[in-house]
Amino acid sequence: MGRKVTLATCSLNQWALDFDGNLRRILNSIEIAKANGAKYRLGPELEICGYGCADHFYESDTLLHCFQVLKELLESPLTQDIICDVGMPVMHHNVRYNCRVLFLNKKILLIRPKMLLANHGNNREFRWFSPWSQPRYINTFLNRNSQYAVLSTKDTCIGSEICAELWNPRSPHVDMGLDGVEIFTNSSASYHELRKADHRVNLVKSATTKSGGIYLFANQKGCDGDRLYYDGCSMIAINGDIVAQGVQFSLDDVEVVTATLDLEDVRSYRGERCHPHMEYEHKPYHRIKVDFSLSDCKDIFLPTHQPVDWVFHSPEEEISLGPACWLWDYLRRSGQAGFLLPLSGGVDSSSSACIVYSMCVLVCQAVKDGNVQVLEDVRRLVSDSSYRPEDPRELCGRLFTTCYMASENSSEDTRNRAKELAAQIGSNHLNINIDMAVKGILGIFSVVMGKLPNFRVNGGSNRENLALQNVQARVRMILAYLFAQLCLWAQGKPGGLLVLGSANVDESLTGYFTKYDCSSADINPIGGVSKMDLKRFLQYCTDHFQLTALKSILAAPPTAELEPLTEGQVSQTDEADMGMTYSELSVIGKLRKISKCGPYSMFCKLIHSWRETCSPTQVAAKVKHFFRMYSVNRHKMTTVTPSYHAESYGPDDNRFDLRPFLYNTRWSWQFGCIDQEVGHGSADAFCSDVHF
User: Fold this and answer.
1) Is residue 154 annotated as part of the catalytic site, yes or no?
2) 45 labelled catalytic
3) Using an 8 Å Cβ cutoff, are 221 and 200 in contact?
4) Helix (H, G, I), strand (E, B) or coil at 402
5) Which pTM does this prediction carry?
6) Where, by residue number, does the polypeptide cross the bilayer (predicted)?
7) pLDDT above 90: residue 82
8) What phi and psi, each to the nearest 5 degrees, are found at residue 288?
9) Which of these is catalytic: 4, 39, 114, 535?
């Protein structure tokens, strides 16, 4: 036996229920790991079926097909002479468990069920699985050893964690390390959130800083069928140092990270920190003896990996890369031929457009780097078997259609801004006037009801003003889908287009959009991003992609342009309509979701953090105004376009932010508590006109 081990972990772009593709990617990763000299290969959580199967985990078919794939893996010559660690659901005594299955040379060594399930944020593992509650219990089924234990090879000892167990204050690696386990593995399905990557890295480093050891972290990558993007970052650490890392965002379906490490470095590290006489309260882990060695007696000249400095992406880079990779996966797996975006010339729709352009940059770079799968996918999308994308602008013209939907309330400035940006990114740009459709709809109403509504500036009521704005917004949605379905048909090309939305997280939080307007789309790449982050992102795109058209877009005040112009200029602005700034909304959104604040708790926090700019009376007014808007418009979240999850305070009603959508919008008791603190009277009367 030697002292050096070569280990492999990986990031796989698995797709829920795509058993053929998932098997192919698993085998590919094993082949690469073996080619790199690895004797142990770790894969992501539930990689055989895909993590995002959701209620399909209830189906017996899912379990059956997982075991069928496992059989293929066991019998494949590629899996010989390497310990393979794969993830799949397993049923035992009619109870479903989220498991790791470790096998070597056609023999299952261990089935390790997850003990600490993820049940926060977007995770709902308790809905489908039960936690294994007997960590020292030895069990045998399937005529093979199947138990919670650790592997003891000829030269070392290996113990498993699964995803959220690393985040838990009682992580298994602590007890395993004290019991002599030298290599820890973690198979994960950790999704992207802005500013989150350093949390993972710090946890992995901390796991081996305390008591030494080698830590392998594997993660899923890509869009496996829903709002989440799994962002890779597979890594290997030893004694608190990262020695090998995978990329966070890429179009590669398979990425394998390998490292060669010296087991004696672990033993020396522990010799100083973990003395033999340390009191160990727990019963020792059951060890499964494996007649196999990870090391080689001839490894003296084999170089080991040295610590590396992890360079994290800025939030602006994350917005540019994460949603772009998500869009690519969605597009190539949806069977459609491209995207259509209503481009208004404002910050939000311009951000969506820039993300599509970033996607095209990534595709061209991947093809240049020799990614055969990306080239195959792009050729299928453009229906040209000889096509090879080299210029992102040219590719953008093939995959991306933008349209400016003008009305009599649109300004020449926004029209020109949209046109200039479309020209710089290379999209196929259309100019559409919606006035004819709007007048036709209002004409129908006038014939039936005998009255014609007017804007407020023309003497109309608030209800009339709001209805007239909504008609324009909803007409844009109808036309967007019409052009998405028939645009390529009119050009003699096959396929249809996916409609992209462009409502940001703050507008969703307050309901500052029309239900079923052009924010109603197939998918929305920016629905989980705040307005403040989007502005910084566009500044990044201005510099990184040399998109100078964004300068005038950033300088213009955000506006819906749904009310009549004043002397040819925009008079309506978003922040005036909402009654608060986007910066204030970001703060309020974080307090509502992350800090779990109701109206009274939010008021109590903001009177301190906003004390330099607002009096308690002003804070009370802003808090009450927000909760009225939020509760009146919460029903919109039940139909909001599926959006890329990026922000920890997002209001997505699908599974991330579960709330009622019919509130008592007066909040009389809660607002009364605020009034007592500031010495006011009762809360203001409810305005029913806001509900649209």
Assistant:
1) no
2) yes
3) no
4) strand
5) 0.92
6) none
7) yes
8) -95, 115
9) 114
